[in-house]
UniProtKB/TrEMBL annotation:
InterPro entries: Amidohydro-rel, Metal-dep_hydrolase_composite, Metal_Hydrolase, Metallo-dep_Hydrolase, OTAase-like
Protein name: Imidazolonepropionase-like amidohydrolase
A Pfam family per the record: Amidohydro_1
GO molecular function: hydrolase activity, acting on carbon-nitrogen (but not peptide) bonds
Membrane-spanning ranges: none
Alphabetical UniProt keywords: Hydrolase
Coiled-coil residues: none
The keyword Ligase belongs to this UniProt entry's keyword annotation: no
Biological source species: Nocardiopsis aegyptia
Source organism, top-level taxon: Bacteria
Record-annotated Amidohydrolase-related domain positions: 61-409
CDD domains assigned to the protein according to its UniProt record, in alphabetical order: Met_dep_hydrolase_A
Record carries keyword Glycosyltransferase: no
Ranges for region Disordered: 1-25
Length: 418
């Protein structure tokens, strides 16, 4: 079946998982018409029009497609500076393969937070790339020597041009930040990203530094708000997180070193937190083998041990939590293991919400994706097992993800082992 083929489909015998109320209802049906959900219920299925395909799921779980709100499909190496020295065609080819693998794991929408662009998003929309819907922010905005500046200490000159591959764009002063923000928005960016603190993958900054001056942050926030978009910020420490939230940053990536004062600000501003715990697990295990420079390897332990506690604190406080993986290069194969990690401190239903309902609200697609409401896009995943009883079901997609639909079209179907 080609992605453009969208017959009406009636699923029967499903364990229908509704992430909004955190329930899984057995012996259920769901009807897809024209790429949209047109009804669902329990018990006998309704009569359907001629030509409707009927699929008996025999008790398997039917749930909304997953959303990963922190991906880097263009990052072919953990050495993010390496992308500046590669041809755009190579990066695009790698990203195509990366996105298709994400789709096979059950992700029907992803948010790229540095590196992806309008061309990659359009390629997905037009079917040139068989991948999840791509919400992109373009290049992350960074001060000189900040987390988006991947030049080593011996490299001179600002050669992070907007047209070249790479995850960051170096700016200094509110005028440059404002111009860069407008340029990303000009390309159709769904959000803007700004670096608020140091990071692991950047070669010349400290994890505990604060980055981007207040007038620079305000300039980016103003431009996003003017375009009815939002700003997400890379930040680890409470000092950097709190500063960003007070200045209007709507979402924080990582947040491993937050404290109680941060939780109050998240709630006050109805802001979002996207922990990315699996990336530190994998950077610790195999970062060096995937190109992570030695200086960056030394930073991993600083954030690895605190991330799970930060997640627990945020969950107990009622912060808006969204699923993110942030994996680079060959480590992207472990994308779904974030489910198992979060399951150590969160109920399964809340972990599922982070990858569906909460993520959809963050990206401005509430009611469209991440839900089984009538009228929503038919982004659906069939999985063996019950993720609400065992979140590990979603952590092992190769074994448990059976079928993936995006906009009602089958995009991936696991081969029948028989």
């Amino acid at each position: 079946m080609t992605p453009s083929t969208r017959p009406d489909v009636l699923f029967t015998g499903a364990g229908l998982l509704d992430p909004e109320d955190g329930t899984r209802t057995p012996d259920s049906w769901l009807l897809v018409t024209g790429g949209r959900i047109k009804g669902s219920g329990r018990g006998p299925a309704p009569e359907t029009a001629a030509g409707t395909e009927v699929v008996d799921l025999a008790g398997a779980t039917l749930m909304p497609g997953l959303i990963d709100a922190h991906v880097h499909p263009t990052a072919f190496s953990a050495d993010l500076g390496a992308a500046m020295d590669h041809a755009p065609s190579y990066v695009a080819a790698y990203a195509s393969r990366s996105l298709e693998a994400m789709l096979r794991r059950g992700f029907t929408t992803v948010r790229d937070v540095a590196g992806g662009d309008w061309g990659l998003s359009r390629a997905v929309d037009e079917g040139l790339v068989n991948g999840p819907r791509l919400m992109f922010g373009g290049k992350a905005l960074s001060q000189t020597g900040g987390h988006g500046d991947f030049r080593g200490p011996g490299r001179q000159g600002n050669d992070t041009h907007a047209c070249c591959p790479g995850a960051g764009l170096v700016c200094d002063g509110p005028v440059e930040f404002r111009r860069a923000a407008r340029d990303q928005l000009r390309t159709g960016a769904h959000h803007l990203k700004i670096m608020l603190s140091g990071g692991v993958a950047s070669p010349t900054d400290r994890i505990d530094s604060t980055q981007s001056a207040e007038d620079e942050i305000r300039a980016v926030v103003e431009e996003a708000e003017a375009a009815n978009r939002y700003v997400t910020g890379h930040a680890y420490t409470a000092r950097a997180v709190n500063r960003g939230l007070r200045l209007g940053v709507r979402c924080i990536e990582h947040g491993n070193l937050i404290d109680e004062s941060s939780l109050e600000l998240f709630l006050e501003h109805d802001a979002y937190l996207v922990p990315t715990l699996v990336t530190y697990q994998e950077l610790s295990r195999q970062g060096a083998a995937n190109g992570l420079p030695p200086a960056s390897q030394e930073k991993v332990d600083t954030v690895l041990t605190r991330g799970l506690e930060a997640l627990r604190m945020a969950h107990e406080a009622g912060v808006n939590l969204v699923y993110g993986s942030d994996l680079l290069g060959g480590m992207q194969d472990h994308q779904n293991e974030e489910f198992a990690i979060r399951g150590r401190v969160q109920p399964a239903a809340d972990v599922v919400r982070a990858a569906t309902v909460n993520a959809a609200r963050l990206i401005g697609m509430e009611g469209e994706v991440g839900t089984i409401r009538d009228g929503a896009r038919a982004d659906l995943v069939v999985v063996d097992g019950d993720p609400l009883a065992d979140i590990g079901v979603l952590a092992d997609p190769e074994r448990n993800v059976r079928t993936v639909l995006r906009d009602g079209a089958v995009r991936h179907e696991r081969p029948d082992p028989r």
